[in-house]
Amino acid sequence: MAERESTRPYLPAFSARSAAIYVTIPLIVAAVGFGGLGGSLGGIAGYLPTASVDILFSFLRMCAAYAASLGFALAYGYYAATRRTGERVMIPILDILQSVPILGFFPVAIYFFVDLTPAVAWLGPNLASVFLIFTSMAWNMVFGVYESLKLLPAELREAADTFGVRGSLRFRRVLFPATVNRLVYNSVLSWTGGWFFLVEAEIFTTNTSPLRGIGSFLSLSASAHNADAFLAGIVVLVAVIAFLDFAVWRPLGRRAERYRYDTSPSGESVLVTPTRDPGGRFHRAAAYVTRGVRTSVSWISTPLVQLASITVRPARKTSEFQRSVFYYLALGAILVVVWLMMIAITVSVFRVFTGPISGSVRHQILLLPFAMGASTVRIAAAYAICLAITLPLAILVARRPRASRVGLPVIEVIASFPATALFPVIVFELIPYLGSEGAAVLMLLTGMIWYLFFNLLAGVRSLAPDLEEAARSFGLKGRQFFRRVLLPGIFPALVTGSITAFGGGWNTLIVAEYLKVGSGRSLSVLGIGQQIDIGYSEPGGTPLMVAALFTLVASVIVINEVIWKPLYRRASERFRYD
Amino acid sequence: MALIRIEHVDKSFASRHGSITIMQDISFDVKDADFLAIVGPSGCGKSTLLRLIQGLDRPTAGRVEFRNQPVDRVCPQMAMVFQSFALYPWLTVAQNVAFGLEALDWPADRIAAQVERYVSVTGLDGFQEAYPRELSGGMRQRVGLARALAVEPAVLLMDEPFSALDALTAESLREEILQLWGDPQLPPEAVVLVTHNIEEAILLADRVVVMSRRPSHVLAEVPIELPRPRDRKSPAFYDLTDRVYSLITEGGATSSAAPEGKPAA
To answer: What DSSP letter does each residue of A464-524 carry, written as one string?
Structure first.
């Protein structure tokens, strides 16, 4: 049996280089903004105190949401992993929760929490924003707990049985430690996601009543066209994220190493592999989303798919191709029918409970399919751009060690910065150059690109060296090498990355298509995200919002079923090599 | 006197194609001061049998008794040594050895003394604060052994304890087990060893229970009366090995198509 290294740091250790990067990036940001937005150094410094206080509020919200997520994850994950009935119900529910575009439900959540606590004015919006952050943090932590308990080797469980270790001792000595490694790892992901949504949560709630925080600070200063304040906010945000990363997560990550367990008795570790590459945390995030997409798709659509296959009972002489065409046509038809039914139900429910629906809202609802189409095209465009950037970049970073030594940490810091903070700038500064459509696609892109990049990077890196060597020894070069070796080799990673990038895209739609900050200046392009936002902000628009949500969820299911699922199957069957 | 009595035990598992019978009508005793080895081809349910003995699993039919009491829950007077060691990577060597004692609610100072004793008995002195990951396979299995001995069990159950070790390490650990077994100051009163290594069984045990392929039954109980230390190269040792080997191969001839692999315990 092979001896193992005693500790293998799974997050890169603190080093002079990473410190330099953390210091440099805020400075570069400031400098670029300084020139580009016309800020002044003195002006920026003047806003730093306010921004620091604001980020304290945001940080407290993050902590509250994180504490709630941690408690929720331990309880939910534990019950799901240990009770059979719990597992059967709780895990599918979770799968759906995490694959549904969360941002779409923001408006609903805000209504709920603000109405819940009418007596204390400040409480409702704060609860709402904490809840929204919670929804971006909790799921992957629950899966972390659940999976580490499920993957706990049977003999570790059995050893506890044989020595009569039960109850709280079992929790302290066996079950809780078993979850620690994954919990730490997933906490990093949760905080990254949390920052992304925090900015959004505060901006969203600003419309109803002002919430102090770094998100609203950024959006207000952007709408006031105050470059100094905006840049001060960005510098503070980057500083806090960087500080947390090397003062909290990296040390914790190294400590959590001890809590790693091997899933197979031979000492080969199954769990560790993805954590060893620096971009691993994003890769892992991607894997979660994929998993969610996969199971929820099968959970929701299996009945529909079965219905479709019954409709296309093969006539004897049809070809495989014809059958699959029929199959998808039938599936599409059934989904359209289900969608129409949902819309009809929504409209009639609202008619019964809140009275007649205004003509303009009805008109908007009829336009939803077009809005959905526009959004899909937009996401596809953003995806194409992402692919064009990330594929060469991933190959470059993976195959040039020197490039990756400097480049990768920079990319990681950029990736963990919440792009939503920059959205106000994108809206106000870039629309003149890019147009509304261009700005919307650019915002979508920021919500998609990292998933694709880190997946592709992991894919290129995991390419078996002997396959590459064999290709070299047979003289395969250039295009041929790309087509015959590289592309098939990274195909599974490409599919996973694409699925998760699209997931990120659906999530970002709600912000990217409709952004109104302060008074006057806004962005609005026809799309499903726009319709959800309009439904939220217009009086009497609730039916539109609900109908748009249904449309979005139904379309995501169709796209998963028709495009990603077959591709995923192909990737895991044909292109896998072990 | 029989310490453990196994009477007409059947075990079957539900599977997609109906129930699969793992073992049928197994009966034998483990006596006081018995070093018993159970050998058989892989997939015959040896490990399952060990789990039935401790009460980690229930027989489908028949009964298991310990000191004339039916075993109907996990029996605290037995302790198990696992093939894969089953050490907790987040606990130090000392904490791993203390694992079973904590469940017994001993006071901390008594636990510390007991851990010290068995760490030293198993040759782990100086490694108390090490983590399992930092140890070699042989050292890890010593921790597994110390953990089991520390609760001073009446019966020590060993599930292929040497299979995950390289040949040389396994050999030296076997010798140490025999030395510990020869020390009257130390527990246990009896040992049940499961192995697929016939030589190992004959080298260590007083008696070898030979099991057939699935659905398995007891083919024979072979007493090993060679004096210890035993010489693998002696003709008597060779004859015994040969006898057990032919028992297994002939016994398995009727159902040689049985699939490989251990059933989930």
So the answer is: -HHHHHHHHHTT--HHHHIIIIIHHHHHHHHHHHHHHHHHHHHHHHHHHSEEE-SSS-EEE
Q: Name the more confident of A7 and B158.
A: B158
What residue ranges define each of the domains in chain B, with the CATH number in brackets? 1-77+192-265 (3.40.50.300), 83-152+155-188 (3.40.50.300)
Confidence of residue A245 (pLDDT cuts 50, 70, 90): confident
Q: In whole angstroms, what separates CA B66 from the centre of its chain?
A: 16
Which helix (H) or strand (E) element contains residue A528? helix A528-537
Q: How far apart are CA A484 and CA A507, in angstroms?
A: 35
Give this prediction's pTM.
0.73
Nearest CA to B86 out of B96, B95, B72, B74 is that of B96
Q: Name the residue with tokens 């080799």.
A: A489
Contacts of A176 in chain B (CB under 8 A): none
Please judge whether A162 and B79 are an interchain contact, meaning their C-beta atoms are less than 8 angstroms apart. yes
Pairing of strands B69-70, B61-66: antiparallel
What is the residue whose two structure tokens read 């100072």? B109
Which residue in A446, A523, A550 sits closest to A105, CA to CA? A550
Q: How many Å apart are CA B11 and CA B245, to the nearest integer?
A: 25
pLDDT in tens, A491-533: 878 887 887 788 788 878 888 888 776 555 678 889 988 888 8
**What is the residue-averaged pLDDT of chain A?**
76
Domain A272-578 has CATH 3.20.20.300: no
Cβ A368 vs Cβ A531: under 8 Å: yes
Residue pLDDT, tens place only, B43-54: 788 989 999 999
The residues near B18 (Cβ < 8 Å, ≥ 6 apart) are none
Specify the range with the lowest mean pLDDT, choosing from A358-367, B20-29, B99-108, B164-173: A358-367
Q: With an 8 Å Cβ cutoff, are B265 and A164 in contact?
A: no
3-state secondary structure of B221: strand
Q: What are phi and psi of B6, to 5 degrees?
A: -110, 120
Q: What is the pLDDT of residues A31-74, one digit of tens each?
A: 666 666 666 777 778 888 999 999 999 999 999 999 999 999 99
Give the model confidence (pLDDT) of A75-105 as tens digits.
999 988 888 777 777 876 776 666 566 666 6
Query: Per DSSP, what are the bridge partners of residue B15?
Result: B18
Nearest CA in chain B to A168: B103
Q: Cα separation of A110 and A105, whole Å? A: 9
Rg (CA), chain B: 18
Q: Tell me how far apart the alpha carbons of residues B120 and B118 are, in angstroms, rounded to a whole number.
A: 5
Name the E strands within A254-304.
none
Q: Which residues contact A478 (CB under 8 A, 6 or more apart)?
A: none
Reference A64, options A213, A179, A218; nearest CA is A213
Give the amino acid at A73. A
Q: How many CB pairs under 8 A join A and B?
A: 85
CB within 8 Å: A156 and B147: no
In this complex, do B99 and A173 lie within 8 Å of one another by their Cβ atoms? yes
Q: Can you tell me the distance from the alpha carbon of A160 to that of A314, in angstroms, rounded to the nearest whole number?
A: 54
